[in-house]
Specification:
With about 850 residues, the protein is an alpha+beta fold. It contains 27 helices and 31 strands. The strands form 9 sheets. The protein has an 8-stranded mixed β-sheet, with no helix packed on it. Bound molecules: arginine and zinc ion (ZN). The site of arginine has 13 residues, from strand 20 and helix 2.
Amino acid sequence: ETIYLKDYTAPAFWVDSVDLHFELGEEQTRVASRLALRRRPDSPSGALVLDGDKLELEQILLDGRPLAANEYLLDDESLTVLAVPESFVLETTVVIRPQDNTALEGLYRSGNIFCTQCEAEGFRKITYFFDRPDVMSRFTTTIVADKQSYPVLLSNGNCIDRQDLGDGRHSATWQDPFAKPCYLFALVSGDLGCVEDRFTTCSGREVALEIYVEKHNLDKCAHAMHALKKAMRWDEETYGLEYDLDIYMIVAVDDFNMGAMENKGLNIFNSKYVLARPETATDADFQAIEGVIAHEYFHNWTGNRVTCRDWFQLSLKEGLTVFRDQHFSSDQVSRAVKRIEDVCVLRTHQFAEDTGPLAHAVRPEHYQEINNFYTVTVYNKGAELVRMLQTILGPDTFIRGVRRYLQHHDGQAATVEDFLMALREAGNLDLQQFQRWYSQAGTPQVSITSQYLAAEQALEITFEQFCPATPGQANKQPLHIPCKIGMLDTGGQPLTLQLSGDEAGTGTEEMVLHLRQDKETLRFINLPEPPVLSLFRQFSAPIRFVGEESSQTLAFLLKHDSDSFNRWDAGQRLAERIILNGANQSSRETAANDLDLLAASFASILQDDSLDKGLAAKLLELPNELYLALQMQEVDVEGIHTGREQVRKHLAVNLRELFRAVFNASQSTGDYSVEPEAVGRRSLKNRCLWYLDALDTEESSQLVADSYRSATNMTDRIAALMLSVDNSGALGQELLGDFYRRAENDPLVLDKWFAVQARSSKPETLASIKNLLSHSSYQPQNPNRVRALIGTFSRANPLRFHVSDGSGYALLAEQIIALDPVNPQLAGYLAGGFSAWRRYDEGRRKAMQQQLQRIVSLPKLSRDLSEVVTKMLE
Ligand code: ARG
Ligand code: ZN
């Protein structure tokens, strides 16, 4: 069954208040609900239909009167009360079994902790309700549970009552003063430890901050708490947004389908995004924790105070909130590096999504299972759209517009149109054409040609945009594309930009061009010599840009561009050219020349002491195999891997002294710190180690072994482990054994142990994954563990996943099939590993198609999996 955006209708009833009463039990959990309902004046009379997913109804009362069996209907998805008055109270009691809930939606258990995940449609697995975001109600929740096993009882809002029930049980009652949709409901109960802190808001409100974790993890919460306080302050200072309750709670659980959830006042997190100590978490983990903590906190305004009218608007909260967390993070870490990382995710994963059968718009027009739309397109491309809006409006107007949106829609469920309207009013700008970005799927391609007119001292640049067809969208309309542009003279100095027709000019060295047509030409004047163009600075639009630069120009930009993003991008494009040409007999020679150019550029980066070390590490990074695969008509799995390895080795051989010197100079001193300086130093050091390791000598393998053994933090340790596991020789096995012993049953460290092996480029990888599937530490019910082993293998190890005999595909399919009855959402996610199947050679294509057909022909498929697989085969 497909749901369409165009079919949206407003809810027929309001729910003024919701009183929930939970009796948590080991076998049965009883949920009593009392809803105060009111028919909307303009809605037609008719039955009351509530969502409820396989609930066992024990009792139903309407205005206190038990309903007779012929007064209501029940099925697997809903409860229908045939006749109801204008306003009434409906009481139901249902029984659910959280301990058997392996799908991790609704109320479930993670170890000994009761917890919830209601977004998007999990609340219907808890009780009968209008499980849609535009029904907002005030919730009061009482939790009753055994006192000893479940000392902690949490829900949204403020705790207004606690009772000892005298029979070994106790209860707590929580009241949330803000009306909210049910997807923001949360409940947690267990034997948890708590780290406490305080925050005073800008207006002087005292907020209790509490992070709940299993007691042995209490020493891993300091970073998350610090991040929370920074995020709270940042939102006040940047957007003028203040927290609105007296308490803010975060709970970490080990079993979680996604990253985290912004439930009002009670965030529930995948423990991966809370717990960290230098010995257990990498720099990237620390940074991700800071980002996700901030993300969920920022949702309190962009998501909770103003929510979404329906799930088609998901990017309204997610795109905006990702944009906000990226902005926050870039204020904490190296701004240049952060932008490169964000773009890398987009270009590697979102661009891939756009080229395949699952391509969809930031605001899709239909879906079968909304869980399948928590995608890089909705989140990360959505964030890029917000970023373009900021570029178009300018930062101050943009902030004013966002505040206006939040003011006008506070307490409401809004749409993308509402958001754009508020921005338009703040900026007095036409965003009509811009809006197409939300409905048009696919990655636009912008081709650039330029012509220097010596006699007129002018440069004409022609921009041509084209967006390839995506499923269901054959023809595309031109988009409003902001292009941030700069120009360099032949000495690498910035030039002043002057557009013809704008003689007054602004005398700036950078400006934003607003491209709006399929093809348009702009003329820049007062250019005594042909300039070097730097286009789409900071990746000002999520497009694929096709330029005409020579390799010399790319090397020039890599050296001189004042825009850090474009410096990096020039290097990436040069490296890409070399790797892809290297695989091709006829262009080998060009590749060899370009390689010398790249080596010379890298040499000067390695010698440049003034450079931000984190940025240097990025500039020295070769494009990853997934990104390279996207640049080919038909993916050459082995060619990409070998080509990239050859370039790595060539650079290692030619620059070994420099890599060695920088490696030595970048050793950490003193205590571990996550300050950008220290993070940058570690990443540069480990980048050098990556090259040195490619020398494949006794000495280099000793260096890796020493790095591992002398490591005092996870960043250095895992970097060395990864290299050793990829190498021939016994070191890898030895270090894996050591790593496993050190993990001491820490699930997050064990995940890394699995992931490192799943990522190995060694031919034995597939066999070792099969062994790992029956390892005593492998837990198929735990999403983090499944993602570490199967997700890493199928998404981050193209060389071994796409092994030509198809055995990698068979393994993935088997895991998907086994997982679907257990956790459909995870099965749907894993199936995405096949989405690029049409882009491979015939043998691989057929082998993947066969696995997809095998899955689709199963007698019982979850909606999650069936939607994804059916679309892939269409
Ligand atoms: N709103 C959450 C976040 O991005 C994600 C929850 C997604 N859950 C799901 N079952 N699809 O912060
Ligand atoms: Zn979010």
